[in-house]
Amino acid sequence: xxxxxxxxxxxxxxxxxQHGIHSPFVYxxxxxxxxxxxxxxxxxxxxxxxxxxxxxxxxxxxxxFGAGSKIFKGNLRPVSKxxxxxxxxxxxxxxxxxxxxxxxxKNALELGTSIGLGSISIAGSGRARLTTIExxxxxxxxxxxxxxxxxxxxxxxxxxSFAEGLTELNPQETFDxxxxxxxxxxxxxxxxxxxxLKHKHNDTxxxxxxxxxxxxxxxxxxxxxxxxxxxxxxxxxxxxxxxFRKEQVKQDFVIxx
Length: 257
Hints:
alpha/beta; eight-stranded mixed β-sheet
């Protein structure tokens, strides 16, 4: 708790908005995407999905394959509480929908389906095809039922560990967006990053969730930032965004969203 509070204060001290950003690519991303007030049809579908799960009376027996939960003590977890405390927030879901639209994402990969709200923020508009991997059978099954209920046919769910799921991907397939939203272990995060590099192209965006979760996650984030193939990184505190655009000058940004 104290670690994350200290990390947030440090983030606030170093963060900026669009002012003082001299990279045209990052400036446009911030002003036209991060801070856009334009309405999106995808917002309505996500709000509908969140309303449904918040009203759910289901309790799932969750198998936690990651770094554990700072919210739940046991494995029996109400869907409504998962949605309230663990799933992607409304603000972040809207940012994700804007990123998918602004970057013209057609093919996406998600590690960590949970109950499916993050997946819907990526593929709810119907523009992107999404492959999403979840190790826990209960949450994976719940998410799949939610996708079917909302008629989201472009989402393909895989119930397996991240490591196993990645071996099943077509080694020649590339993704426009890769969202790593699970495990929250520094060493594992670096392993997934390295294994996923073969699935990127010049304009691919990697998003890492909870980069300030722990000292190990912060260390992993610092190593990702200096990787030779990484050109631009943006720390928004909750998420770390990574771009590989070879035409960009190598720069790191800390941006308030």
